[in-house]
Amino acid sequence: MTIDVDAVLVASSERVPAPAGRASGNLLAPFTPWLSTLAILLLWTAVSAGGLIGPRALPSPFDVLAAAWELTANGRLPAALVASLARVLAGTALGLVLGLGAGLLAGYYRVGEMVVDRPLQMLRAVPFNALVPLFIVAFGIGELMKVSLIAVGVLVPIYLNTFAGVRNVDSKLVEVGLVYRVPQRLIASKILFLGALPSILTGLRFSLAIAWIALVTSETVNTNAGVGYILAQAQRFVRTDQVFLCIVIYALLGILTDYLVRRLEGRLLAWRKSYDGR
Amino acid sequence: MPDIRLQHVSKAFDGTAVLREVDLDIAEGSFVAIVGKSGSGKSTLLRIIAGLEKASAGQIETTDRLAVAFQEARLLPWLSVVDNVSFGLEGRDRKKVALDALVEVGLRAKADVWPLTLSGGQAQRVSLARALVRKPEVLLLDEPFGALDALTKLDMQNLVGELWRAHGWTVVMVTHDVDEAVRLADRVVVLGDGTVQEIVPVPGTGPRDPDDPALAPLAGRLLRLLGVPFAGRRSLELETSPTRLASSLSPVS
Ligand SMILES: Nc1ncnc2c1ncn2[C@@H]1O[C@H](COP(=O)(O)OP(=O)(O)OP(=O)(O)O)[C@@H](O)[C@H]1O
Ligand SMILES: [Mg+2]
């Protein structure tokens, strides 16, 4: 018996099986999406090693690694990560619950739409960092303001996509529930909610992307803990290596959350048979 | 006491009349087939009976306990096949009931797959199974066998015919296949110009033998009523699909 490497690789990818011959079989296949990133890293190394741009303006990847080591050794980076993650988790959780709730309310009920849709559409039109001064006045400059700012940023995309997702469910499927006199709660959960799930997960991805942006924005205001604090300090003392480190950390966290949502999509949307690109 | 009674039922969409003063009594336990050209309002009539569409005028008496198999399968793509069949059923044995129904339609092996992986005919059979497990008083079928091959079609016709006999349901079946109509129904309602043109009774009880010599003249008569020009040929369907057209134009081998 031979082991079908192709099958193993395809099965481990989170999407619906790719067309045969697509991930034509070598063990490097899972890494191919990273090749462009690797190229950028190499270019970065080459340019900084070339010495055209000084380390002040462009530290090499090794300088950044050294900075990471230094900040880890003295405990500042782990503490900052914990503080930032706690903020982002609290704000995201709050925003998701409120946004999902409002989206389902507006999606299920016309009355709900009338109550919540207009204000949230208006909120959507406001860039959330324009809210910073308002939030400082309302919530002070402490954690409450930061968490609220993240929550508001998260709330908008998840709301919009949940609402649109529910309203885009094929009315022919809802008719099935109606004609079989299925209980309302089943129509809500098994037809409308599950039907809206692809859209909700898209909203989740947008929301989480905004969560990190909102975190950075909120951490520029009077912070004494968090990745944003390290960034602000590094800027003040012109530690470009640390500035780069913070940027890299934000990028990695963003990729990580995106990866997690994709995994979630793979699990929850396994029923889909959609176009996968060619 | 008829199970379903339509009196002067009319339906217009945006001012265009689709049904005009339809009168129809469907007796409890009877099997009625509705035939008519594409766009003649068959599905609309069924939807009105099912309570999914409001008539523009007229009165409808119908029952609550009805199940519909729609013209398109309308499976929930995010539930497995067996969960689709048992959707909304109560009781602890709901899964078993659904699996039994899947055995009946020959799709037990597909119980755990996603509906989007089914072929058109398979999806249609799952949709039929979903309607059958409701144990309805009235079963409304909208072209339930349209996507099936000849052999599976006969099987499914037998299944519906036998379940109808066994349970005494009232069945209303829309079809464009006059042979199917005369095989199964007690009465065939010919719909045209938005109203009931004629009601043709079929002697005996379905499911009838497809070779029954009494059926051919009835089918021919239905085709003439529907205005099919070369109605001499048997087994010609109303909506001639390209392949059917080709085969009916090619010389008999
Ligand atoms: N919701 C709707 N809005 C507007 N027009 C409609 C609607 N539903 C049906 N119609 C029109 O009513 C007419 C009858 O449609 P119906 O679906 O009842 O036909 P049918 O006899 O079932 O045809 P087929 O055999 O092709 O399924 C068609 O002209 C259709 O365009
Ligand atoms: Mg129809």
Written description of the protein model:
The complex is a heterodimer of chains A (278) and B (253). Chain A is mainly α. Chain A is built from eleven helices and no strands. By secondary structure, chain B is an alpha/beta fold. Chain B has one domain: 3-Layer(aba) Sandwich (Rossmann fold). In chain B, strand 1 and strand 2 form a beta hairpin. In chain B, helix 6 packs across helix 7. The longest helix of chain B has 18 residues, at 150-167. Mean pLDDT of chain B is 87; it is low at 234-242 and 244-248. The complex binds adenosine-5'-triphosphate and magnesium ion. The site of magnesium ion has 4 residues of chain B, from helix 1. The site of adenosine-5'-triphosphate has 12 residues of chain B, from helix 1. Chain A: It comes from Kaistia hirudinis. Chain A: This is Sulfonate transport system permease protein. Chain A: InterPro entries: MetI-like, MetI-like_sf.
* Separate helix tally of chain B: 8
Shape of chain A: globular
Measure the end-to-end span of chain A: 31 Å
Which whole number gives the mean pLDDT of chain A?
A: 86
- Distance from N terminus to C terminus of chain B (CA atoms, Å) equals 51 Å
CATH class of chain B: Alpha Beta
Query: What level of helicity do the residues of chain B show?
Result: 25-40%
Give the class-level CATH name of chain A: Mainly Alpha
CATH superfamily heading of chain A: MetI-like
Largest β-sheet summary of chain B:
6 strands, mixed
Low-confidence stretches of chain B: 234-242, 244-248
Largest sheet of chain A: none
Which strand order spans the largest sheet of chain B, edge to edge or round the barrel? Answer: 5-6-7-3-8-9
CATH topology of chain A: MetI-like fold
The arrangement of helices and strands of chain B along the chain is EEEHEEHHHEHEHEEHH
